[in-house]
């Protein structure tokens, strides 16, 4: 996986993200914000482990209620039964993990920033989960 | 895994992307170029509230962000509404509000006689018509190397349109003048914010310096029609020369205030700062736009022989004085002709340079200078949120002359 910003219709699709390991994500997260904003490459490529059922449950819980404010208030994500319409539909956007991570850290436009609301681990989990399920409707 | 790896987004400059496409495994170079210039139907559908846009002219980043493809910008100054970009901070309100536009209410505060007025009443107070460049703060985000969050706009989050409405000054006069001590005009959007969210976190409320009271208009008409919901109808605040975000849509409250809005979008959002820094109120706000221009034709390839290189130029709050064009990556420049009509200091100006170029590949770009002598920058230093890339280096297009 790599950069998503070719052109909107060529955004990297989410299928590869199934293999993103949260552990690799965490390694990335250890870097500075600045580093994360740079084009990232290696971590996600070699990733192999899928999210466990338990991790998926935790991610869904954060997205639908615990994130404060919950993503579900503003975003649609069928796999988590999130139906918000205030912001763009994540099922339609199909972001990769890096896109989600950047959105959580930066809070683009009027989206809240989550850097002070969630732990790095939680953000990585959400990013991996959204990248894996967005557009599919399958948890 | 067969995923595209592209290391320098800005090679995609303009509509082209041909150079990049050939290095992308599993992606047809030609198909990609066609997608970028808009000869292919977009794969993401237009959102309902903007379903009347011309699909082949638009890049759909998200439901809230639709970009005009570069070569669709013509030379007659005004951008038709059906190809004008859309950038909504939040989902627009119900379309019922434009069905009965005259009944829309706006609260005026921080004046001698505060009160609420309907659009119908505002229409009795005065009318002004002002062409302005509407440009999203994030226009050109896709030309930076750092992956700032948000839509990766190229050049198409901008357009010149004509607004009609009441001058804010006329309203203020009718309400007995501005209250003492006011330093800002603070405008609140009418988006519906769900329960359970701290309003300041998502409220679209922007403050601009009070000096703008003499240029702001409250517009109910755009390009000869009632302002569509997608562009802020029934009533939109137009702050000429200021970035799009300040031009608050579905405005429901206009207040003269001593301090800037408490909303995050004002306090920490839309602040220019180095990459990696958080937003803070002491950083420059995205207010006045910079001098900027870009070529809109040719953008990918063109037959040899006479070529009319054309594009658009604007100076934010100042009129454009001159535009130069380079066909050799900025090594040499030629004076372009500014096309009439001149729609005023806040509009953009089309320019043209007739050239004859032998077959080959050219890096074509333009450089504008405003009436104050400000010259369009060569390159734009990265800023955290990827606001307004206006450097002529990456706004260049790689054109093959056949």
Automatic annotation (TrEMBL), chain A:
**Transmembrane spans:** 12-33
Which keywords does this chain's UniProt record carry? Heme, Iron, Membrane, Metal-binding, Transmembrane, Transmembrane helix
Query: InterPro entries attached here?
Result: Cyt_c-like_dom, Cyt_c-like_dom_sf
Q: According to the lineage, what is the superkingdom? A: Bacteria
**Is Transmembrane helix there in the keyword field?**
yes
User: Where is the Cytochrome c domain positioned along the sequence?
Assistant: 54-134
Its recorded name reads Cytochrome c domain-containing protein
Classification from the root reads: Bacteria, Pseudomonadati, Pseudomonadota, Alphaproteobacteria, Hyphomicrobiales
TrEMBL record, chain B:
Where in the sequence does UniProt note compositional bias of the Polar residues kind? 366-381
Q: Where is the Moybdenum cofactor oxidoreductase dimerisation domain?
A: 285-398
Instruction: State if Protein biosynthesis is listed as a keyword.
Output: no
What are the residue boundaries of the Oxidoreductase molybdopterin-binding domain, all occurrences included? 99-262
Alphabetical keyword list: Metal-binding, Molybdenum, Oxidoreductase
Q: Pfam families from the entry?
A: Mo-co_dimer, Oxidored_molyb
Q: Does the keyword Transmembrane apply?
A: no
Note the superkingdom of the native organism.
Answer: Bacteria
User: Which CDD domains has this protein been placed in?
Assistant: SO_family_Moco_dimer
Q: Which residues form a coiled coil?
A: none
What is the recorded name of this protein?
Answer: Sulfite oxidase
Taxonomic source organism: Devosia nitrariae
Per its UniProt record, the required cofactor names are: Mo-molybdopterin
- Looking at the record, which segments are called Disordered? 366-387
